[in-house]
């Protein structure tokens, strides 16, 4: 199977070459283990194995002793890979000592930030590690014109490499089940797994929409604060991306302040929502909007400039699907499931330009075959070229 080069690999290599350690986070099966395995390393330890994990948990000094001996045999600092560090975060204290004494550098991976960031005293190695995030494939990594396949099956590496759609579906179903069993039950992240399972289905169905915690709590039968906690679990386990709204305005007093949540992968989202593959035709427009949002977030994450993806909505009418915030201001983006964009598709973009007068250019991302001008400083671009919107 041919390896597909990951864009995050460059940042990781640059960090290692300048003597920094790396913390690589990403949801399950985004390719973290494969990526770090390509690095020229001296020792690789997977904490997924219970026997390995328990050995080091009982006596963390064993890891220090092994690495110190290894360092004595080397002419330069060895590179140590610790896979799934959240399963034995106490080892981060050992790593800090070895880093501070100049004995070794590390690449840590994790599929959950829950234990690392919440309710523990985990040592996050401030100033010693470069934080990276590995997402499913971006369009830049896997060039394709098969839009429907992306919207239905997502972009996880293990799913992308499967040709038979029947097997894609089987593996996606297994992914959702494994997440519930291993990530939630095993880590005891929630008490009521049945309620969380129902929540997961609703959350997947509502992906890309503005969340109403109280309405969702009535559907599931738990408190709205519990729903908020459930979303935090999904966010910490890297299953959803939270997208915040633009809240500053010259004239509008009622701008939405609630966030949207996007499932990190559209294939996982569809299976978690129990939607099947025969979706209504009008459903693809919503999936297309989510796909573009996810792609913008991933491109922004890889960008060297400070970029944030937001949305804009006035409950009284106008809204813009996505807004890129950078050092120069805003870039508003509407997403349309059409190959022939028209003046009706840019009404809200023009309202946004009037409200935020420093906005230079606005875009409609759609299925047009070529870039075209729609109005002054408003253009339609093919979805395959959205990486051009973030430098």
How would you describe this structure to a colleague?
By secondary structure, this protein is an alpha/beta fold. The protein folds into three domains: 8-133, 3-Layer(aba) Sandwich (Rossmann fold), CATH 3.40.50; 147-284, Arc Repressor Mutant, subunit A (Orthogonal Bundle); 291-389, Trna Endonuclease, Chain: A, domain 1. The protein is built from 15 helices and 13 strands. The protein has helices at 8-17, 32-37, 50-58, 61-72, 91-100, 114-117, 147-153, 157-160, 165-185, 193-205, 213-220, 224-236, 266-272, 283-302, 347-355, and strands at 21-25, 43-46, 79-83, 105-110, 129-133, 240-243, 260-263, 308-313, 319-326, 329-335, 362-366, 372-375, 378-382. The strands form three sheets. Strands 8-9-10-11-13-12 form a six-stranded mixed β-sheet, sandwiched between helices. The chain has a five-stranded parallel β-sheet with strand order 2-3-4-1-5, with helices on both faces. It has a two-stranded antiparallel sheet with strand order 6-7. Helix 10 crosses helix 13 (266-272) and helix 11 packs across helix 12. The two termini are 32 Å apart.
């Amino acid at each position: 199977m041919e390896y597909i080069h990951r864009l995050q690999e460059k940042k990781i290599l640059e960090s290692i070459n300048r003597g920094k350690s790396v913390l690589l986070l990403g949801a399950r099966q985004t390719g973290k283990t494969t990526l770090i395995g390509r690095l020229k390393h001296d020792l690789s330890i997977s904490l997924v194995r219970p026997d390995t994990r328990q050995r080091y948990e009982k006596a963390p000094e064993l890891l220090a002793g092994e690495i110190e001996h290894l360092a004595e045999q080397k002419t330069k600092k060895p590179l140590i890979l610790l896979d799934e560090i959240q399963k034995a975060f106490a080892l981060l204290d050992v790593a800090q000592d070895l880093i501070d004494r100049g004995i070794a550098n590390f690449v840590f991976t994790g599929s959950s930030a829950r234990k690392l960031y919440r309710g523990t005293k985990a040592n996050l190695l401030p100033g010693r590690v470069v934080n990276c995030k590995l997402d499913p494939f971006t369009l830049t990594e896997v060039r394709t014109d098969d839009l429907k396949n992306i919207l239905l099956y997502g972009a996880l590496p293990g799913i992308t490499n499967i040709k038979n759609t029947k097997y894609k579906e089987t593996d996606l179903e297994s992914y959702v089940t494994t997440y519930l069993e291993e990530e939630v039950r095993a880590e005891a992240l929630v008490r009521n797994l049945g309620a969380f399972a129902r929540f997961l289905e609703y959350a997947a169905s509502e992906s890309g929409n503005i969340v109403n915690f109280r309405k969702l709590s009535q559907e599931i039968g738990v408190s709205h604060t519990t729903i908020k906690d459930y979303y935090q679990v999904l966010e910490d386990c890297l299953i959803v991306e939270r997208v915040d709204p633009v809240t500053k305005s010259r004239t509008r007093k009622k701008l939405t302040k609630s966030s949207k949540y996007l499932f990190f992968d559209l294939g996982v989202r569809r299976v978690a929502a129990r939607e099947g593959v025969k979706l209504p035709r009008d459903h693809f427009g919503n999936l297309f909007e989510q796909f573009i949002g996810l792609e913008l977030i991933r491109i922004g994450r890889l960008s060297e400039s400070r970029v944030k993806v937001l949305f804009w909505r006035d409950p009284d009418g106008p809204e813009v699907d996505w807004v890129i915030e950078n050092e120069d201001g805003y870039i508003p983006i509407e997403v349309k499931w059409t190959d022939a964009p028209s003046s009706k598709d840019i009404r809200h973009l023009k309202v946004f330009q009037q409200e935020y007068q420093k906005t230079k250019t606005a875009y409609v991302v759609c299925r047009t075959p070529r870039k075209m001008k729609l109005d002054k400083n408003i253009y339609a671009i093919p979805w395959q070229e959205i990486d051009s919107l973030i430098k």
